Amino acid sequence: MWRAGRLGRGAALGLLLAVHAVAAFEPISVGIAIGAASALTGYLSYRDLYCRFAECCREEQRLNASALKLELEEKLFGQHLATEVILKALTGFKNNKNPKKPLTLSLHGWAGTGKNFVSQIVAENLHSKGLKSNFVHLFVSTLHFPHEQQIKLYQDQLQGWIRGNVSACASSVFIFDEMDKLHPGVIDAIKPFLDYYEQVDGVSYRKAIFIFLSNAGGDLITKIALDFWRAGRKREDVQLKDLEPVLSVGVFNNKHSGLWHSGLIDRNLIDYFIPFLPLEYRHVKMCVRAEMRARGSAINEDVVTRVADEMTFFPKSEKIYSDKGCKTVQSRLDFH
């Protein structure tokens, strides 16, 4: 028994080292290594020990909805719809022990409105290491899928990456940034994984989460927000039903949305189209204050005002919305 224990500890240590060694390689290699290590260390009854030294996929871990709600309310400005829908969608999905399909969210709005920021918050609340987690995978269209003539190759690679990583961790998270720059047809490669299948080639994708980030539809969102403003209605009066149908049809018919005539929309596989409203002057000031706090600086309202005043706003006549949202706040604050 003593020798077997010694051997088990040695094997576990070897697996730990192997996991760290493959960490520099592509997602599928890391996923397979993590999966193999988890399986073997579990067999050796050292899973708890293993998970103290390396990240583990905890599929049954419940979402701390209160912590997510607090973080969204305190850190995401001017996005009442996104806060409400994302909180409800994630809470409902994670509380469901037997979902019928993966959760698929499509986030839309102009740059600087908070889409990437929200995806980071979501990732951190699902896996403790957030975007650095072995179980959170970020794809950037212009980086990972740049060439239109290689669509078939990208489709095959994408299927392989997702299959390998979900095999290793059923609760994997996949984030697709710059969807509006993705060549038409690429994203349809993952359609079987988002559908209502119990398994695809022996793998269940039902506990995975897919998040799309896109500037497409920003003009449609702005038009409706502006109509509300001109009618004297509050920003918070805008409801999901005012925007979601317009967004889904708009991106489906937009050749530059990444979802042009996509089967994902045609088959109703995207659970929520989430609009991010354009940010107003007061929201930009909130972003400046938040950045100051993040830097450990005292809030200087004169600096807050100067930074906000340097931003440009539209439409030209009313100047209501920041044309870059809060995207350049960090760099502008560096000059003050």
UniProtKB/TrEMBL annotation:
Keywords: ATP-binding, Endoplasmic reticulum, Glycoprotein, Hydrolase, Membrane, Nucleotide-binding, Nucleus, Signal. It catalyses: ATP + H2O = ADP + phosphate + H(+). One of its GO terms (biological process) is protein localization to nucleus. ATP binds at G109, W110, A111, G112, T113, G114, K115, N116. The keyword Signal applies. InterPro entries: P-loop_NTPase, TOR1A_C, Torsin, Torsin_1/2. One of its GO terms (cellular component) is nuclear envelope. The keyword Lyase does not apply. It is found in: Endomembrane system; Endoplasmic reticulum lumen; Nucleus. GO terms for molecular function: ATP binding; ATP hydrolysis activity; kinesin binding. Residues 1-24 form the signal peptide. Residues 279-335 form the Torsin-1A C-terminal domain. It comes from the Eukaryota. Belongs to the ClpA/ClpB family. Torsin subfamily. This is Torsin. It comes from Neomonachus schauinslandi (Hawaiian monk seal). The lineage of its organism: Eukaryota, Metazoa, Chordata, Craniata, Vertebrata. The gene is TOR1B.
